[in-house]
Amino acid sequence: MTDHQLVTIDDHRAVRIDRRRGVALGDAVQLCLVVPDEFRQVQNAYPILFQRTAARDGFQAVALFGFAPGENLYLEGERWEAPYLPLAMATRPFLIGPPPPGGEVPQLHLDAASPRVLASGQAGYAEASPLFDGEGAPSSYLAAVLEGLGRLDRGYRAAPDFFGALERHDLLEPVSIRFDDAEGNARQVVDFHGIHEERFAALDGEALGALHRDGHLLPITMALASLANIAPLIARLQRRGADA
Questions:
Q1: Which of 86, 152, 171, 196 has the least CB density, counted as fewest CB within 10 Å?
Q2: pLDDT tens digits for 71-80?
Q3: Would the pLDDT of 214 be above 60?
Q4: How many Å apart are CA 49 and CA 66, to the nearest integer?
């Protein structure tokens, strides 16, 4: 259940956010949305794959954390074992809400039902991050969240052009990940897409030039490079299974 609230200083002056990592704080997720603008950072640690949107009317990019719902292999207790936290995870439990009536600027909302949201007197409150400073200005933490949400929003709005280019050049192909778990059981993960490397390599100079001009060439190469993280992710699963 969620409880989305418009963030105001009057209603949220005393609210603090628990920024630790852990299953109880909602980090046991298999994947999260990523946008092409952050592919350079994401590819350093996570496989970048593509899946159809819930409406089946397009594609979205995701960073893969595990091979089953609720499985996050980068999460070890309260440690997130990767050098970069995707924007969609780093900005939780905040989200961008619609502009006010007659306005154009999106508003900041908070999922007040998140276990990260703490009120005065709750365990961990003293160590948690406030939204506002003593003068009522946004805290440095909230400023960073706003910057991350802005980047995420701009990337989300730009993503249809990126996926349009991929489909125009027929660069998306279904991906099937096959491996053995720690017990030697065969596993298979489907319902994802990836970049078709051979078709990409066969593009002529004109097509590559157009992709570069439109800012799509870098995220394509970053998505391809990110697939090298699948084998280490499988190794994480096997080590965890062996230690269980």
A1: 196
A2: 999 999 999 9
A3: yes
A4: 12
